[in-house]
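STRUCTURE:
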């Protein structure tokens, strides 16, 4: 059994010293070809390519597995007095420790590692431990224990799968049409760049990754709701901080984006977006929005509720000479709002807002009510307007934003809804 990992060896007989983790090959086997020879653990590092052998039977004081879920463990030896700290993939480390357990217990799975100090030889068949040039040179490879991978040519795509220790992965310019299911098996992955491909849809399971940065620019993502269901998974909702969906010819900004509650930066340049969802203001962590080169004529008035650092709306259609402010003082404004009884979902949504229930938190309100709240625009006074008409480019607004980028002769016009004639007269 061989484990490629990182280790730090601590000598308990000596105090102090630096604790440095090195690329390591840990192997369990027999010390020689002799049948009676006891099993040993060999530790090969970049600084010690000849390897260090530790006895196993009656020589392991304790194995610490408290942080095994994080891919960490420590083996404490009696002779020499060394503590070997291990960092590796969780699944591979667990398999290594299971083999080590079988060395103690043989075919008796009921015994535990802590109690396995028997001097009887193991029933497990172990190979002889040897060090060859191929094994030693493996540690010098850049792919071993690599946490970052860049693929820009099809010939560079790994045939034996990705390293489970990857933190950053870029797959660009290879005309990728479908997401590789191997990506779902990378628990440490945090940054993923899939730009300049031909991806049309991502599976919902994609949202189970705990990504912080996701670049999907210059693909062929579809406008259908099914194409964005991966944003409904709680793992991605709680970790994603940067999302780039530029250059996908999207005709609207996907409503499911608002569920990414930890999103800080949203980039959707070079699309065909004409409208921004009213519910975007619910993204309380969002600080930077870039919507360059779209077809936006106005922004929702609810964006006044956001605290932004940067809003880039250059190369859009926010021309001042095309303002179409209508006469909003109409009698039917209130009549249309009450032309039919409110549904049960709408009544529940009104209660959630009036009682200031934090409905964006998981489990606070039913999902159907949450959907109603997300899709319902708000009047400037804060009241939800479930049946009111949306008045486009109704007024000029001022946002709470540090940097606003517009083209010359452009202003920020707002699309508005009004809950009553009293609010409409304020325009």
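SEQUENCE:
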């Amino acid at each position: 059994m061989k484990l490629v990992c990182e280790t730090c060896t601590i000598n308990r007989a000596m105090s102090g010293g630096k604790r440095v983790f090195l690329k390591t090959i840990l192997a369990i086997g027999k010390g020689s070809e002799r049948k009676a020879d006891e099993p040993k653990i060999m530790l090969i590092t970049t600084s010690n390519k000849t390897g260090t052998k530790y006895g196993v039977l009656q020589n392991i004081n304790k194995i610490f597995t408290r942080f095994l879920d994080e891919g960490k463990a420590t083996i404490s030896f009696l002779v020499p007095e060394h503590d070997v700290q291990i960092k590796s993939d969780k699944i591979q480390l667990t398999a290594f420790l299971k083999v080590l357990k079988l060395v103690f217990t043989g075919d008796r799975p009921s015994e535990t590692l802590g109690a396995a100090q028997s001097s009887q030889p193991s029933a497990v068949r172990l190979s002889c431990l040897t060090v060859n040039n191929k094994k030693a040179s493996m540690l010098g490879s850049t792919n071993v224990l690599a946490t970052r991978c860049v693929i820009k040519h099809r010939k560079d795509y790994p045939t034996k799968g990705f390293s489970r220790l990857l933190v950053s992965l870029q797959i660009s310019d290879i005309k990728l049409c479908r997401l590789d299911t191997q990506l779902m098996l990378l628990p440490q992955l945090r940054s993923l760049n899939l730009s300049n491909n031909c991806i049309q849809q991502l599976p919902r399971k994609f949202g189970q990754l705990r990504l912080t940065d996701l670049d999907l620019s210059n693909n062929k993502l579809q406008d259908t709701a099914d194409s964005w269901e991966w944003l409904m998974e709680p793992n991605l909702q709680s970790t994603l901080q940067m999302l780039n969906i530029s250059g996908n010819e999207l005709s609207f900004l996907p409503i499911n984006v608002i569920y990414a509650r930890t999103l800080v930066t949203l980039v959707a340049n070079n699309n065909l977006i004409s409208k921004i969802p009213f519910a975007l203001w619910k993204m309380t962590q969002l600080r930077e929005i870039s919507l360059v080169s779209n077809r936006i004529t106005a922004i929702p008035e609810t964006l006044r509720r956001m605290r932004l650092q940067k809003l880039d709306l250059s190369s859009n259609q926010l021309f001042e000479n095309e303002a179409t402010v209508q006469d909003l003082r109409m009698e039917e404004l209130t009549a249309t709002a009450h032309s039919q009884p409110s549904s049960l979902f709408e009544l529940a949504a009104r209660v959630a807002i009036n009682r200031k229930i934090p409905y964006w938190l998981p489990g606070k309100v039913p999902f159907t009510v949450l959907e109603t709240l997300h899709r319902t625009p708000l009047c400037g006074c804060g009241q939800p307007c479930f049946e009111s008409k949306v008045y486009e480019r109704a007024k000029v607004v001022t946002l709470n934003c540090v940097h606003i980028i517009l083209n010359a002769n452009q202003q920020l016009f707002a699309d508005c809804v009004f809950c009553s004639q009293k609010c409409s007269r304020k325009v």
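REMARK: The two ends are 75 Å apart (CA to CA).
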